[in-house]
Amino acid sequence: IRIHRVAAEQALGRPLGAGEVVHHINGDRNDNSPGNLQVMSSQGHHMALEQLQRKQKRGVQTLFTVQEMVK
Questions:
Q1: Quick count: other Cβ atoms within 10 Å of Cβ 40?
Q2: Considering only CA atoms, which of 65, 12, 1, 68 is closest in space to residue 38?
Q3: 20: how many CB neighbours lie within 10 A of its CB?
Q4: Taking the CB of residue 47, how many other CB atoms lie within 10 A of it?
Q5: DSSP code of residue 36
Q6: Alpha-carbon span 5 to 46, nearest angstrom
Q7: What are 19-62's pLDDT values in tens digits?
Q8: Number of C-beta neighbours around residue 66 at 10 A
């Protein structure tokens, strides 16, 4: 069992849907506090967010902000 999935389901009050994935906002996979977990609609959306965050850490200018990606 993936603890972050259980924590996200408890915070949402419902089971995660098919394809939904849980993103750790601060990047720490051991921090499963509800404020650090964000449910993403798909693995593709999650991967795009991760890539955007890596680019921003390297100082690469991007078209979107992280905040715009997670709306």
A1: 19
A2: 12
A3: 18
A4: 12
A5: G
A6: 14
A7: 999 999 888 999 999 999 999 888 887 888 888 888 888 888 87
A8: 12
